[in-house]
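This part of the workshop introduces the protein records we will be handling. A learned vocabulary of local backbone shapes supplies the integers on the structure line. Getting from the letters to the tokens is the skill we practise here. As an example, a complete record with its sequence and its structure tokens follows.
=====
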Amino acid sequence: QVQLVESGGGLVQAGGSLRLSCAASGGTFSSYAMGWFRQAPGKEREFVAVISGRGVITGYAHSVKGRFTISRDNAETTVYLQMNSLKPEDTAVYYCAAARNYDSSSVAYEYWGQGTQVTVSS
């Protein structure tokens, strides 16, 4: 069983930056691909970014590529999402999740955090 706890959300002006963290406990952290997803009010949860277990491979949604960076520290069992040049349309609850395999589909993810709110004002 893997437990995930996100932090770092908040209110920021458009053009600003935030760094989200997701601390994991339980399981062997490096054996899981880690993903970030987000869900805006009235919309379905969508993929944001994914990183492989060793951190070698990363993938991004087209809407965030070039602005967001996913990284991980396996010694600290933490995954990060650095978000730059934020836009109002990035406003959502952001979730981290763990999967056995590198995947951008939410159905592949077994474990989920509780989410952290990111609000970008215009």
